[in-house]
Write a structure and sequence with these properties.
Strand content: 5-15%
Number of helices: 14
Strand order of the largest sheet: 3-2-1-4-5-9-8
Distance between the termini: 26 Å
Structural class: alpha/beta
Length: about 300
């Protein structure tokens, strides 16, 4: 798969950097809240690190389940187009959606730089059937997005996606924190945080060590709660049972941690005992629902 990785000139990288700063990173007071080190780290992540991750981990994993060459994909939460590019390099025909218009401007520039004419749309995840019901997709991918949706939005979107998939199609969830895991590394960086009900988590956020998060939410009202939830709350198998089917009827055909099991053991991952404990609680619970993040693929 590496032979398909495109190479970009310094001029192309600099142009993409300009787009990132203009359309994504320098909006509002985002830049002023980040140290120079963190700002440069964000730029590097957008230009290089995240692309390396998607090229060498996510794309090979999905390709092991179904060849990406020629696969038609609806990517929900395509953001600035990093994963969109990694999938497209392998021959996938990607339609990307996101609610962040600025991020999509970067995605358009990224895909144009790579020579792909990719369809990118500002669409809410709970409106996919309205916009794409006449399209046939081999994969519908939720990329780091379910956690930023309300429960109502999650259930509605997942049901729509499942209804839209043909028999033999795949639904994939990538990089969504597992609410059953004992530590929230995504939003608050605190143990047991995702176990708390939303209102208590709202108030408890003041104990987070994340400086740009802990001081935001003090007065509880509807608008503040929605903004709070958008930062990210974990998901678990419960949403999939409610919106798709009971656990015993869910056909999970792979997880990223299964795919990378050997590398995982070599990395010294310390959560295996807890993973096994969660799985022991329910014989129908796939191990993909027992890891720190939900990186799983369902087959219809």
């Amino acid at each position: 798969m590496q032979k398909n990785h495109l190479k970009f000139s310094d001029e192309q990288i600099n142009n993409l950097r300009d787009s990132l700063e203009k359309n994504y990173l320098d909006r509002g007071d985002t830049k002023s809240k980040l140290s120079k080190e963190k700002y440069n780290s964000a730029i590097n992540g957008q230009l290089f690190e995240r692309l390396h991750y998607n090229r060498n981990r996510i794309a090979p994993w999905l390709n092991s389940i179904k060849s990406l060459n020629g696969a038609k994909i609806l990517e929900i939460g395509c953001g600035t187009g990093i994963s969109t590019l990694a999938l497209s390099e392998q021959g996938a025909q990607v339609t990307g959606i996101d609610v962040d218009a600025g991020a999509l401007e970067v995605a358009k520039d990224r895909m144009k730089m790579a020579g792909f004419d990719t369809a990118l749309h500002v669409v809410n995840a709970d409106a996919i059937k309205e916009h794409f019901d006449d399209k046939k997709f081999d994969f519908i991918i939720y990329y780091a997005v379910l956690e930023h949706m309300t429960i109502k939005e999650r259930l509605s979107s997942l049901k729509q996606a499942w209804d839209m998939l043909p028999e033999g199609g795949f639904l994939s969830v990538i990089e969504t924190p597992n609410r059953l895991w004992y530590y929230d590394s995504h939003t608050a960086a605190m143990p047991f945080y995702d176990w708390l009900p939303d209102e208590l988590a709202f108030y408890y956020s003041k104990f987070s060590k994340r400086n740009n998060f802990k001081d935001l939410y003090r007065e509880l009202n509807e608008d503040h709660m929605i903004n709070f939830l958008r930062w990210g709350r974990g998901a678990s198998y419960h949403e999939f049972e409610v919106s798709i089917a009971p656990l015993q009827d869910l056909n999970i055909v792979g997880s990223l941690m299964q795919f990378e099991k050997t590398a995982l053991l070599k990395s010294g991952f310390k959560g295996l005992r807890y993973t096994k404990f969660l799985k022991s609680l329910n014989k129908n619970l796939h191990s993909g629902f027992c890891n720190p993040y939900l990186d799983i693929v369902f087959k219809k």
